[in-house]
What does this fold into?
Amino acid sequence: MDEKEQQKEQIRKLGQEAVAQSKQKQLEVEEKVSQRLANIQEIMLETQKLVEQWTKKMPAEPPVKENHLKLVPPIKKREEEETTSKSSLDKPDEIRE
It folds into this structure.
């Protein structure tokens, strides 16, 4: 074999090795992906079971909470009411009627 043929043979071998490595890496990636997908599916099933258990334990309707908050008029309106009531107190009785 002459030198050019040896170089071609080396290039061909290197190409085959690169293809084999690429295929091996692709298989490893696919295996890891399938494992992770299986883990995700398992987690989803476990979560679904837990949700079903919790919904069985929960009452059908949540208890009614009493509203302890009082509605208060806005500050501007309160100030206006206070000023009008003060001004009406300042006026004499005849005008108030």
Notes: The CA atoms of residues 44 and 50 lie 10 Å apart. The longest helix spans residues 3-57.
